[in-house]
Amino acid sequence: MSIEIRRIGCVRVSDGPVYSVQLEPEYWDAVLGLEQFSHIIVLWWISGCDTEAARKTLRVHPRTPEGAATPLSGVFATRSPKRPNPIGLSVVRLIDIVESTKSIVVDRIDAFEGSPVIDIKPYMPSSDRVHCPRTPEWASGLPHAHGSP
Fold first, then answer.
1. What is the C-alpha separation between 64 and 108, in angstroms, rounded?
2. Residues with Cβ within 8 Å of residue 92, at least 6 apart in sequence
3. Alpha-carbon span 86 to 37, nearest angstrom
4. What pLDDT shows up at residue 143?
5. What is the pTM of this model?
6. Which fold has domain 9-139?
């Protein structure tokens, strides 16, 4: 069985910094109603790590901002870009929707300029939030997103 994933747009990083998702024109109608949400989930292809070797990587030492030593972990227990299907996920704050450029402006995104975007979903607190999540010790020092303590 093969799976076909369509590129719906790409990540744009400008000076400032200004981050946006520039949609392909044929997908612009799909943003109707998105302006009602404060945050969105952007799924993107980690094209910089899309190599046969990276796709065969199943265990890594997770990276931390401080470069601290971490235990060997399976890629499904990490956010490593090296994985069987290099799909990135970013929860971002929606700043603006600009019809003239077919762009969705966001506060930040941990993708590179030109990264292919494969889907956008609204952030729904009723289904996307986890109360009291459990994480491994090595992840306890990672920064919190969107101003959370």
1. 19
2. 19, 39, 40, 41, 42, 106, 107, 108, 109
3. 27
4. 66
5. 0.88
6. Elongation Factor Tu (Ef-tu); domain 3 (2.40.30)
Give the three-state DSSP class for 127.
Answer: helix
Q: How deeply is 43 buried, as exposed, middle or buried, from its count of CB atoms within 10 A (0-12, 13-18, 19+)?
A: middle
In this structure, are residues 123 and 106 in contact, taking their beta carbons and an 8 Å threshold?
Answer: no
The residue-averaged pLDDT of 56-61 equals 96
Residue 103 near residue 110, CB atoms below 8 Å: no
pLDDT tens for 103-148 read 999 999 999 999 999 999 999 998 888 888 888 888 776 666 554 4
Q: Which two tokens stand for residue 125?
A: 């607190």
Q: Residue 8 is encoded by which pair of tokens?
A: 């719906």
Peptide bond into 17 cis (omega under 30): yes
